[in-house]
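Section handout 9: paired folding examples.
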Amino acid sequence: QLKSVLRKGISIVISPEGTFNMTHQPLKEFYDGAFRIAIETQTPIKPILFLDAYDRNNYKNLFSLTPGKARIVYLKEVPVEGLSLKDVTTLKDMVYKIMEEKLIENIDYYINEQGYFVFTKAYHLKRGYCCGNDCKHCPWKDENINSNSELIDN
């Protein structure tokens, strides 16, 4: 039925990972279905990243949404013109790589209006210490430079 909807020009959203990501990786492994449908209908893929999904929608209760920011990143369209079902794995891997790279970028840093790289709180926590450079999203207070004993919520 999805194929008939796509043939009518109606957009659909498919989560290629099929469920919540419970791993420590940026993305869960993708299933073939979305890519197979895209190739069969010759419909380009328009990857989207929901950066705050964990904060807005708890995996323990699908119908429980929490208030707050919900950032979405729309990535460049991936054409499927001329691909056949033999190309499903290649297409899936290509889209995975595109999404993973952009997700890592948005998890660890973003580029501000002035073109500067700004490290996120997640990056600082992964690094494990304060560098003392007064970073915008540093989770440690100035008096805790080079110590992660007192976290603050940014």
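Moving on to protein 2 of 2.
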Amino acid sequence: IISYFIIAKSKGKIEIILDKYQYSPGETINGRLKLIIKKPMISKELKISLIGHQKIKSRKMNIRKHHSTNEFKSIEIFNLAIPLHKQKEYAIGEQEINFQIKIPNNILNSQKPKVLGFLGAFDFNTKRYPIKWYLSADLEVPGINPYSKKIQVNIA
């Protein structure tokens, strides 16, 4: 465990910096990524993604066994990934990369996840929790775990 933290701290990090955290459909998210590079490297890709997750609680009834159970799932219902760089060489130090993501006008009407019943199991009383929205930045580097950072934003 200690070696994991030493390696994680020695490779650097990525931060997401925004002017605000509350958005409406149709707005543009303006931000920047701050990369802190501790060793020179060549990346495979740098991308920023707007992701929507929804928690779902359903009550499953098994007709054959005459019992029911509650089941919780977190389902990704939206993912808009924008590549900022393809393969690129990074030197030691701090770098900032500006980005923009246009929030679709219909984002709050994102396709609802489908819950399937099979082999006599049916979903009853499905409860959908509010969608949680995240910005996720990922810098993929061959041979090491990706630099990544995820922050929550509000879209209403």
